[in-house]
Write a structure and sequence with these properties.
Chain A has 101 residues and is mainly α. Chain A has 3 helices and no strands. Chain A has 2 domains: 68 residues; 33 residues. Chain B is 79% helix and 0% strand. The chains are: A mainly alpha (101), B mainly alpha (196).
Chain lengths: 101, 196
């Protein structure tokens, strides 16, 4: 985004407004799904799926990740790997506690 | 001594230094909040019973705060876009709105917290409330940090626009990246803590 010109910015502003409307709509969807009182598995799946779409919109457009430099992508790719390892830790801890009885 | 690459991009990274700096910082923030999310999963999976968030917490207030924070992300990016279009007055307006919305978020959070305390619901009451207060308080501190930086950029820091507009625009972009990250964390916190 560093070489963006005023015309590009005007186009971006229109995108920001569309993303804003989409985020509001998805927030309503998130709350509406919770009122359906689905079973825990389905509720987690739907809630995280909608949250991931919302987060992707924020990261792609507001944080300009859709048109960023390679070094930022590599930094984030490494972060994702470590984040996933962090999320898998509870599983290994659970297996440990099962083994120990 | 002049700090290099505050306005222009380095040839090797293709970024001005502060931008690479903020992305590295945000990577560390992902690990900080990631550790707490991981803790939440561990606690929930191993708990004999776990309350639904909506039984203990105020979903309408949290929904309002979600709308407030998403709106503040839009005003933040609009403040940066205004500088890119050389409209300093509009920058002041949008950045001012961002700060105002951040305060609204904290005020709503204050009412949520006090309502819990009045009902004798504390971090020590149960594991769910312990992790709820830990994560939301840490997130609240991030909001407070954002308010400090954004208020500086709105007020005394904005003098830089007169003599180095590109560097100032970059500062606002970097502050914006941080602010959108704080919004992004809330996007996950809201369903995980309140709705599941």
């Amino acid at each position: 985004m560093e070489t963006a010109h005023a015309e590009d910015i005007t186009k971006s502003v229109r995108k920001y407004i569309v993303v804003f409307v989409a985020l509001m709509g998805l927030t309503i969807v998130t709350v509406a799904i919770s009122y359906l009182h689905l079973n825990v598995g389905a509720a987690i799946l739907f809630a995280l799926a909608v949250a991931t779409v919302k987060a992707s919109l924020v990261a792609s457009y507001f944080m300009h990740l859709i048109s960023e430099r390679k070094i930022v992508y590599w930094t984030l790719a490494l972060t994702v790997v470590f984040f996933l390892l962090l999320m898998l830790l509870p599983i290994s801890a659970d297996q440990d506690s099962t083994r120990l009885g | 001594m002049n700090i290099p690459y505050t306005s222009t991009a380095r040839l090797d990274t293709g970024l001005y230094n502060a931008k690479l700096g903020i992305w590295l910082f945000l990577a560390s923030e992902v690990m900080l909040f990631g550790a707490l999310f991981s803790t939440y999963v561990l606690l929930r999976v191993n708990a004999p019973t776990w309350p639904h968030g909506y039984e203990l917490l105020n979903v309408p207030l949290a929904t309002l705060n979600t709308i407030v924070l998403i709106s503040s992300s839009v005003t933040m990016v609009m403040s940066w876009a205004s500088l890119m279009m050389k409209k300093f007055g509009k920058f002041k307006l949008y950045m001012g709105l961002t700060i105002l919305l951040a305060f609204v978020f904290l005020v709503v959070k204050y009412f949520e917290y006090t309502a819990k305390f009045e009902h004798h619901l504390f971090p020590s009451t149960n594991t769910f409330l312990a992790i709820y207060f830990t994560i939301t308080a840490l997130h609240g501190l991030h909001i407070l940090g954002g308010i400090v930086v954004n208020t500086y950029l709105w007020g005394p820091g904005s003098k830089m626009w007169q003599n180095d507009p590109q560097r100032f625009t970059n500062r606002v972009e970097v502050a914006g990246l941080y602010w959108h990250f704080v919004d992004l964390v809330w996007i996950f916190l809201f369903p995980v803590l309140y709705l599941l």
